[in-house]
UniProtKB/TrEMBL annotation:
Cellular compartments per GO CC: cytoplasm
Name recorded for this polypeptide: Adenylyl-sulfate kinase
Molecular-function GO term, any one: sulfate adenylyltransferase (ATP) activity
Keywords: Kinase, Transferase
Domain of life: Bacteria
Amino acid sequence: MGGENLQEGIVIWITGLPNAGKTTISKHVENELEKMGSLVERIDSDEVPKSLTKELSSDWKKRQQKKSTNLIYVAQLLCKHNVIVLISSVGRLKEMRDIARKSINNFVEVYLKYSLETRLQRDILEKYKRYPSTIYYYEEPDKPEIVINTHQVSTTDAAQKIIHFLKNQGYLH
């Protein structure tokens, strides 16, 4: 590229309770960005190697903190090299998403809302049955850049809403 910086790194954390559509929407956003010629990496907490998110403590909250810390670290590295990073992770603790926001210059939080009834219908992995004591725990973001009620819009429209925001904010050229 001869020293040109055609793309600035950005981290987009797509958050929300399990089965709200994080993986599906992040894949659509990834595809759209790649079609536009952007360098994109998608980090899905359900797909990352267990060595990155392994249980490092018997304490649930500490495990959640460590998992988020590891995801943030990888995202920072990629962002530093001008990659658009899509984190698809519940990110249950608001404090961890706030740490990401403070430590990453170009950070966008996308909050996916979805009804419990529909999330339960989508629960093919039975997460809500297997983890009843923790699955419902989620600290909603105070001021996410984007809120999408995924029961009201299609996956394609949700992805387009994110792309539109990135264009309007000058992240995409």
